[in-house]
């Protein structure tokens, strides 16, 4: 009988050991990784304004266009003199990052004496990839000059944006 009790105890211990091992065999573990990417804050600086030149208006409405490279096209009936420039904006940020640029599509210029003119705006690029010294983009436009446009100095402001892609 003693032998029978011992066998029974061993059998019970074996079953208990197998039951514990069965649970351990079903368990699994893994590790995860936490990551972060830090980008420098973008700074955007205007280094030149959009300059349409000096315009002598005519008897009919026309346009003056300044490309994003700064080249001007003076419309029929107008005389354009002086310097033209596209607006230039410098971007500083993280080297190698892609920046999406954009902003207002038009601007209203108000005369110093009276009158207004509107200009559509164009951007040299939709995205800029920053290098070690940053990047830049230009803004040109097409100015609508009215027939016998009122004389004066015309100015208007427009907004541009730069955001990481």
Structure description:
Strand 8 and strand 9 form a beta hairpin. This protein is of the alpha+beta class and 165 residues long. Strands 1, 3, 4, 6, 8, 9, 11 and 12 form an eight-stranded antiparallel beta sheet that branches.
Distance between the termini: 82 Å
Radius of gyration over all CA atoms, rounded: 36 Å
Give a count of the beta strands, DSSP E runs of length 2 or more. Answer: 13
Proportion of residues in β-strands: 35-45%
The biggest sheet, with number of strands, parallel, antiparallel or mixed sense and barrel status, is: 8 strands, antiparallel
> What's the average pLDDT?
91
DSSP helix fraction: 10-25%
Total helices: the number is 1
Low-pLDDT residue intervals, each spanning 5 or more residues: none
Structural class estimated from helices and strands: alpha+beta
Element pattern in H and E: HEEEEEEEEEEEEE
Shape: rod-shaped
Properties at a glance:
single chain, 165 residues, alpha+beta, 3-stranded antiparallel β-sheet, rod-shaped
Q: In terms of topology, how is this protein built?
A:
Blueprint: H1 2-26, E1 43-48, E2 54-56, E3 62-66, E4 72-74, E5 79-81, E6 87-92, E7 98-103, E8 106-111, E9 116-123, E10 127-129, E11 135-145, E12 154-155, E13 160-164
Antiparallel strand pairs: 1-6, 2-5, 3-4, 3-11, 6-11, 7-10, 7-13, 8-9, 8-12, 9-11
């Amino acid at each position: 009988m003693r032998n029978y009790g011992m066998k029974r105890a061993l059998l019970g211990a074996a079953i208990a050991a197998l039951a514990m091992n069965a649970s351990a065999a079903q368990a699994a573990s893994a590790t995860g990784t936490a990551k972060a990417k830090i980008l420098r804050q973008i700074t955007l600086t205007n280094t030149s304004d959009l300059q349409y030149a000096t315009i002598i208006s005519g008897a009919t409405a026309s346009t003056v266009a300044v490309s994003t490279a700064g080249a001007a096209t003076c419309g029929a009936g107008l005389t354009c003199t002086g310097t033209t420039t596209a607006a230039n904006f410098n971007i500083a940020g993280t080297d190698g990052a892609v920046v999406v640029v954009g902003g207002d599509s038009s601007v209203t210029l108000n005369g110093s004496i009276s009158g207004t003119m509107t200009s559509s705006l164009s951007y040299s690029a939709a995205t800029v990839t920053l290098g070690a010294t940053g990047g830049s983009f230009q803004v040109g436009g097409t100015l609508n000059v009215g027939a016998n446009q009122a004389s004066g100095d015309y100015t208007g402001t427009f907004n541009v944006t730069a955001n990481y892609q």
